[in-house]
Amino acid sequence: MDRRPTTRRATRGRPVRAPDEIRPGTPVVILLDCREGEPDRTGQAATFEGYFDFETGELRRAGTGIPRLRMAEERLWGFECWWRLDPQRGGLSDSDRTEIEESKRLLRGLMRDARRSQRVPR
Q1: How does pLDDT run across 33-66, given as a tens digit for each residue?
Q2: How many CB atoms lie within 10 A of CB 96?
Q3: Which residues contact 34 (CB under 8 A, 6 or more apart)?
Q4: How many CA atoms lie within 13 A of 18 on its CB side?
Q5: Domain locations along the chain
Q6: By the number of CB atoms within 10 A of the CB, which of 46, 65, 79, 83 ranks highest?
Q7: pLDDT per residue as tens digits for the range 100-113
Q8: Residue 59: count of CB within 10 angstroms of its CB
Q9: Contacts of 62 (CB under 8 A, 6+ apart)
Q10: d(CA 14, CA 33)
């Protein structure tokens, strides 16, 4: 039987912060490049650089900044494209391609429905 006094210290302190799931340098793949007027980078490998402040470019903690990706000398903000982690560097999988095509089809349907609802009945 353990006779050491129990301490309340463990319950009072700051909770241990879980390690970030995505660390700088983690390989990712671009699922769909959403930028207009730029070369399409869909399917290309990139590296996660971290979370940054959009206005200043300063590094931020996870959850308080915008993800930034790096492809060779080019940088992309995480909201400019759809991307996912790719730790094995396998690139786009067949399921990725299927899901992208399904998403495009659903988006086209939503856009078509939105155009129809904007028409003024005569």
Answers
A1: 988 899 889 999 999 999 999 899 899 987 788 9
A2: 19
A3: 80, 81, 82
A4: 5
A5: 23-91, 92-122
A6: 46
A7: 899 989 989 999 99
A8: 13
A9: 20, 21, 22, 51
A10: 40
